[in-house]
Specification:
By secondary structure, the protein is α/β, with parallel strands linked by helices. It is built from 10 helices and 17 strands.
Length: about 350
């Protein structure tokens, strides 16, 4: 499935070719809601933004003319709250991948207090609905000071507070050796990390699954980009850009459904003796509708990533959370320098 088409936009009197995505990711590369919400909604109003390819340095343009859905990623999405009405006015739906970790004691992240972030989570659910705010505890990192038991205790503390506020918990095991930036940043910052082994992953999965049942959370449990198969514990591979969830939240958007090639069907009326029979894999929608999943993996993502195709508009080396394990910043100084550039020109066509 094509991610987008191209359109012509006018910049300083010149006609420029721009990608025109239907589904936007904002963003895997930096925390747009926490630090660039003002910029993003200004660019949405302007109709376009600029983006630099991290692999070849080529600048291109993204038009929001056809955008129908946005997936936000954030550790502190509170700055989105005053802007959500703009999306409703433009008939743009969204959901939020909310990374809500608890590394306060270890100081691995520079984020607001855990209590404040949980409050933000609940405020977002009030506006967007339970299914539209997804809890991520990502990554699960082991150190000299953080054991499997410690992580499970942290998850339990947050999970108890988010019961009935979300449908899903997504997590990943910190795979440090695979990601050069992560390994470098942890070593430079003096964090005594440990790699997960398969036995530890299995133990964690088993105990997390039991906790989910015993404490009555009933979250869907899923891993992000993990090779290990722990489905026997009821934990699936996640689709963070999730075609099925997008359909559930925006099934009445005909343009979006046509793009995704999803057909919305009516549930047959029950007979005198039987409930209606639905096809295998049918997903129920409001008002007696259903659909069959058409989710397709984006072949451009990692081998064990199940995301569907979207256009990410963020840029690396721009996130001032300064997490000690960061995969998106080469180093803290570069990230802070770029964030200062943004503050000097906050409505520039690109983040920096």
């Amino acid at each position: 499935m094509a991610t987008w088409k191209y359109t012509e936009i006018m910049i300083n009197g010149q006609s420029v070719k721009a990608q025109s995505p239907i589904i936007v990711s904002a963003s895997r590369s930096t925390d747009i809601p926490a630090f660039y919400a003002d910029w993003f909604f200004h660019r949405l109003e302007k109709g376009y933004s600029a983006w630099t390819n991290p692999f070849n340095g080529v600048k291109s343009y993204v038009s929001y003319e056809n955008t129908r859905f946005i997936v936000f990623w954030s550790k502190n999405p509170r700055p989105l709250l005053p802007y959500l009405h703009i999306l409703k006015e433009r008939n743009i739906k969204c959901y939020i991948q909310y990374t809500l970790n608890d590394y306060e004691q270890e100081k691995l992240e520079k984020v607001p207090s855990l209590a404040s972030r949980i409050e933000t989570f609940k405020l977002l659910v009030e506006q967007l609905g339970k299914g539209a705010v997804i809890w991520r505890f990502d990554p699960m990192i082991l150190t000299d000071n953080i054991s499997v038991d410690d992580l499970l205790q942290k998850v339990q503390n947050i999970g108890d507070q988010l019961k009935d506020y979300t449908e899903k918990l997504v997590f990943s095991y910190a795979d440090i050796g695979t990601y050069r930036k992560v390994k470098h940043n942890l070593e430079v910052n003096g964090i005594p990390y440990h790699e997960w082994d398969t036995k530890q992953m299995e133990i964690f999965a088993d105990r997390l699954s039991a906790m989910n049942r015993e404490r009555g959370w009933n979250f869907q449990l899923a891993t992000c980009g993990e090779k290990i198969d722990i489905s026997k514990y009821g934990i699936q591979h996640n689709s963070c850009i999730d075609g099925d969830l997008i359909t559930r939240l925006a099934w009445d958007d005909k343009k979006l459904m046509e793009f995704m090639k999803v057909k919305i069907e009516d549930v047959p009326a029950p007979t005198l003796f039987d409930e209606p029979e639905l096809p295998e894999g049918a997903i129920i929608l409001p008002h007696n509708h259903y659909f069959i999943s058409k989710h397709k993996k984006d072949q451009g993502q990692r081998p064990f990533c199940e995301c569907m195709a979207s256009k990410d508009i963020g840029e690396y080396n721009t996130c001032p959370h300064l997490c000690e394990y960061c995969y998106a910043n080469t180093n803290k100084a570069t990230a802070l320098e770029n964030f200062q550039k943004h503050k000097n020109n906050p409505y520039n066509e690109s983040i920096v």
